[in-house]
Design brief:
The complex is a heterodimer. By secondary structure, chain A is mostly helical. Chain A is built from 16 helices and two strands. Classes of the chains: A mainly alpha, B alpha+beta.
Chain lengths: 350, 256
């Protein structure tokens, strides 16, 4: 009897020790660049999904793993390529079934600073974690289903152990999978462009780049800053939703399809101008192949519609009517927002 | 020795009693400023944005797209002239109904205040500071237009004299001339809003009402066909906004 009791106590001890081993994933808070910490408020990190070394590593493996797709042919990285600042060089993405979608893959960087936490072009995902859910099941993206994905991950030789390390459980769920991916995505920080270094006093801009900045900021010229930020906001986006005059009538309602409010029809999230040298083609449907086409759009190509943003100017004339030289100067400035070190960061490579 | 102990005890009691009496007779309370908006009395909420449904004093029909502004430096003035100034600011965002109520961290003593006031916008000293939350909200004014921050961003549409919809950007900033590397400032365009006397006896909620129609009304009858966009570098327009802004705010209900 006594031996039996001792055995029970020993068994209880070991059964408890699995849960109460004291193991905790290793905290890995984001390294916030100086240009961010001095200019904008801290990033959004959900209290139920803190950054950890193991969570980030797991998220990175999942991001690059084709196991998330129905036939094992595509991963997140298939449409979000590091060489394109995690955007894609196709106008719209092609899913596992070979069908093209209707949207251009958005670049992925500085996502933790999207304070409104509305992701995707149309704001349909209300957190980074939720954003990672939809592409897995979308028939024109990875075309899988979460039950199958969880089954594959659970029976994988490595993943249960990796989830154990990241989340203290080897029972894999959709929620933990997307949490891990979101942790990795939050590490994708870009803050080392020529303009960043200029702001920090580490380099200078050319005369043409400075004139381009002036055009960008002048309300009677480009007036880009009301939506795309300014030197005091290194995100170069307000992450808000605007109809920027692409179409007179809409085939894609954008935010309006999400909110059901016709006043939101044709509105899409302002993309960051950072790294745009790598993120062509442009706009939500990838309609503009080059940066020159984008500048021409705001200069002469605006289309009026009921929801066009009042920040768009001289609509009747097609736009702000920049000269050829002004366009070249503006482009020169915009290219200073490119951060080649982001593309070469080994932490972001598979 | 006995006398000394007695004296010390009395002193301790006296001091402790004084302290207690002070806090009892003049407790400090929290103040909450609640910002409401109307168009000549008709309440305006975020769901009123979009459609062109209001008519300004000049006769143009208008609709709202975006409306946000900064208030700062709240001052409570006592009857003896003493002022309690709270060096604070709040970005009211009617578009998204964010920061519609603002409670400063600092509590104030109860009492009869002959005036409660705040600054619309930021005074020049505050406007030179770096506010990371305002930067994050992309509320900045570019350096070549004087730097600092918008006082107000009011975007919308109106029906112009050709009967066409047109955008307007009624953006109030520090009036600036000579836009460029060496801007100059013809006059200050932030202003003090006096709400008048308030007797504060408890935690209090003070309604601050803004009649948005007033921005178009008095003393300058605002013609949106003339002044609609690119108004930031237009010091004449900025000074007109400053003048029209004098009567947009009023004290609403006070709950305590």
């Amino acid at each position: 009897m006594k031996k039996g009791l001792i055995l029970i106590v020993v068994l209880l001890y070991f059964s408890c020790s699995d849960d109460d081993s004291g193991y905790q994933p290793t905290p890995s808070p984001l390294e916030i660049p100086e240009i961010f910490s001095t200019n904008i408020i801290p990033p959004v990190i959900p209290s139920d999904n803190p950054q950890t070394v193991e969570g980030i590593a797991l998220g990175k493996k999942l991001f690059f793993d084709k196991i998330l797709s129905t036939d094992g042919t595509q991963s997140c990285a298939s449409c979000h390529s590091l060489q394109n600042a995690f955007a894609e060089n196709l106008p719209t993405s092609v899913g596992v079934t070979g069908i093209s979608g209707t949207r251009n893959a958005m670049p992925l960087f500085n996502l933790a600073w999207n304070y409104g936490e509305r992701f995707n072009w149309d704001g349909s995902a209300l957190s980074l974690e939720r954003q990672a859910e939809e592409p897995v099941e979308n028939p024109i993206e990875l075309h899988s289903d979460w039950d199958s994905v969880i089954n594959r991950l659970q029976n994988h030789p490595e993943y249960p152990e990796l989830f154990q390390l990241a989340f203290n459980t080897s029972t894999i769920t959709k929620e933990l999978t997307t949490k891990a991916i979101a942790q990795f995505e939050r590490t994708l920080i870009s803050a080392n462009s020529k303009f960043d270094r200029y702001t920090l006093g580490l380099t200078s801009l050319t005369e043409q780049e400075l004139i381009g900045l002036d055009i960008f900021l002048r309300e009677d010229k480009g007036d880009c800053f009301h939506c795309h930020g300014n030197p005091n906001n290194p995100l170069w986006t307000n992450n808000d939703f605007h109809n920027n005059g692409l179409d007179a009538t809409f085939t894609d309602l954008g935010l309006g399809a999400v909110t059901g409010d016709s006043n939101d029809n044709g509105k899409f999230r302002t993309p960051s101008l950072r790294n745009l040298a790598y993120t062509a083609p442009y706009m939500h449907d990838g309609r503009f192949a080059t940066l020159d086409e984008v500048i021409n759009h705001y200069s002469e190509g605006l289309q009026n519609s009921p929801t066009i943003d009042p920040l768009m100017k001289q609509i009747a004339q097609g736009g702000v009517q920049l000269t050829t030289q002004e366009k070249a100067d503006l482009k020169a400035f915009l290219l200073t927002l490119s951060d080649p070190s982001f593309l070469n960061n080994p932490d972001f490579q598979n | 020795m006995k006398k000394l102990v007695s004296l010390l005890l009395s002193l301790v009691l006296l001091i402790s009693c004084n302290s207690s009496d002070d806090s009892d007779s003049n407790p400090e309370v929290s103040t909450t400023f609640k910002f409401t908006h109307n168009w000549d009395g008709a309440l305006i909420r975020d769901y009123n944005f979009g459609p062109i449904q209001y008519v300004n004093a000049h006769g143009e029909s208008i609709g709202f797209e975006r409306f946000r502004y900064v208030i700062s430096d709240i001052v409570f003035t006592k009857a003896n002239g003493e002022e309690i100034e709270l060096d604070v600011y709040n970005l009211v965002d009617l578009t998204n109904e964010v920061n519609m109520e603002y409670t400063p961290d600092t509590q104030i003593p109860i009492g009869n205040y002959t005036n409660v006031s705040f600054t619309f916008g930021l005074d020049n000293e505050d406007n030179a500071e770096n506010y990371i939350d305002l930067n994050s909200a992309s509320f900045n004014v570019p350096e070549m237009m004087g730097g600092g921050y918008h006082y107000m961003q009011f975007d919308g549409k109106f029906i112009n004299s050709n009967n066409e919809e047109q955008g307007f950007n009624y953006h109030a900033i520090r009036a600036v001339d000579n836009v460029g590397p060496n801007p100059t400032f013809p006059q200050d365009t932030f202003f003090t809003v006096n709400l008048g006397p308030i007797n504060i006896s408890n935690d209090v909620e003070i309604e601050v009402k803004m009649n948005i129609a007033e921005w178009f009304k008095n003393p300058n009858l605002w013609d949106l066909n003339v002044y609609n966009q690119m108004l930031m570098p237009n010091s004449t327009a900025q000074i007109m906004m400053y003048e029209n802004g004098q009567n947009v705010f009023s004290l609403g209900e006070v709950f305590q």
